[in-house]
Amino acid sequence: MRSAALAFALLASPLCALAQDVPKIQTLIITGQDVPGHVWRSVTPELRTALEATGRFEVRVMEEFRGAGPETLAPYDLVVLNYYEQKKPELWWGERAQNALLDYVKSGKGLVMFHFSTAAFEGWTEYEKMSGGNWRPGNGHHSPSHDFTVTIRDRNHPITRGLREKFRQPWDELYANLKWQPQGTYHVLATAWDDHKLYNNPRQPTPGDGLDQPMLWTVDYGQGRVFATVLGHDVAAVRTPAFVTTFTRGAEWAATKNVTLPIPPEMAEGGRRGEDLTAVTPGVGAAPPSDAVVLFNGRDMSGWVNRKGEPTGCRAENGEMVCPTGSGHALTERKFASAQIHLEFLTPDMPDQKGQLKGNSGVYLQGLTELQILDGYQNSTYAVGQVGAVYNQSAPLVNAARKPGEWSSFDIVYRAPKCSERGALLETGRLTLFLNGVLVQDNVRLGYRGGMCQPGPLLLQDHSGFKNAPHTVMKFRNIWMRPLE
């Protein structure tokens, strides 16, 4: 199984459950200016949406802070920075505006330092003291974007109290080797392991196998509070539950010194379990429509290969694709983007196993986003790993599993991400999934991974390659698709 970005839509309901009479935190996002890869025009609206969706914040956006003063900031409890001046002196705000921000925080107000704002204003000493850590020449780099695990280091802080100790941040930049202020002037809340094997020709030191790098931290500046997060590189990265939960909680703490926002079940200590899902008795599957592209003909494995483009270890037998453990992933030679997809699968009865070690596979769209295939019948496991989950992103609405040994079906409506000619993400992908005729994923947003701008294969997972992997024989049949471009 592979992790992928988690869905922003998971957070809407729990974050809105706030008392209506609580005064809203008046918030100003200062933004404008960026470099390729940090597009403020697309990310800033996401930051605003994340805050306002909680019902706790009232947000305004200012795209030009040059010439501002104390009167500009006076109405606000919180400032969020999404700004980088591109190393251009003319894009600095000016002494009056810069001092206004410093005095604002010193007076007891809140500041959120977002992602590449840590790279702004090289040489502004007070800004660096307020930041805690900064991206500076010779200090600040990252390996290629990838999925990584964030580990909470202070579980008693109001921002992190009640969160899971470890959680995934899909397909993001892991900032490393920042220039830090003296120990004791900042407080680390969470770190991530920077795997040095992921670097190609690093220009900065990468000693040993890797190092833990701060991802979330706080700074006391005068009477005010600063929350810094270097998560959230692009639109997809700021929509994940990991980012939204920590960002909104950090913003509330910076503004008020307290945190009242609820934690979504997927992010809470203990997590949401698969047995919490409502059981629904499914109906029957469907045969290919007349305009479908049949991907598996039931007679042979034509059109299917392994990752190397060689024949897959799965075999056609009695109209079924039989894939025992160790046969390797099976990929379609045909590549696609948006599509309607149907497939049927059979998980074996493995009464001596439980959780993820029961009949386990997955279908990957474009070879990247996994829909979990699992024996989910009376099988307790984590919700984002249950059958019908967008694995590690979105739990199914209900558990519509059949018994092992009975055929089940996926009916998928997949809308691939839309990208610019240069490969920049314009619109995230979406997915609707019916498991055994029951709606389990309802137009959910999908995390973005590199490669989604190009068509990719349908991949059936071989759940092996780890110690003590049980012998499992997965079977598939009636696999077809209808391209939706």
Spell out the CATH superfamily of the largest domain. Class I glutamine amidotransferase (GATase) domain
Number of domains: 2
State the distance separating the first and last CA atoms. 28 Å
What is the CATH architecture term of the largest domain?
3-Layer(aba) Sandwich
Can you tag this structure with a few keywords?
485 residues, mainly beta, Rossmann fold, Jelly Rolls, 2 domains, 9-stranded mixed β-sheet, 8-stranded antiparallel β-sheet, 6 helices, 31% strand, elongated
What would you note in describing this structure?
The chain has six helices and 28 strands. The strands form six sheets. A nine-stranded mixed sheet has the order 2-1-3-4-11-10-9-6-7, with helices on both faces. Strands 13, 15, 16, 18, 22, 25, 26 and 28 form an eight-stranded antiparallel sheet that branches. The chain has a five-stranded antiparallel sheet with strand order 14-17-27-19-20, with no helix packed on it. The longest helix is centred in the middle third of the chain and has 16 residues, at 241-256. It has helices at residues 12-16, 40-52, 70-73, 95-106, 125-131, 241-256; strands at residues 25-32, 57-62, 78-83, 110-114, 133-134, 146-152, 166-172, 179-180, 187-195, 210-221, 224-229, 278-279, 293-294, 304-305, 315-317, 320-324, 330-332, 339-346, 360-365, 369-374, 398-399, 408-415, 418-419, 425-427, 430-435, 438-445, 459-460, 473-483. The two termini are 28 Å apart. The chain has two domains: 8-267, Rossmann fold (3-Layer(aba) Sandwich); 274-483, Exo-inulinase, domain 1 (Jelly Rolls), CATH 2.60.120.560. α2 (40-52) links the parallel β1 (25-32) and β2 (57-62). With 485 residues, the chain is mainly beta.
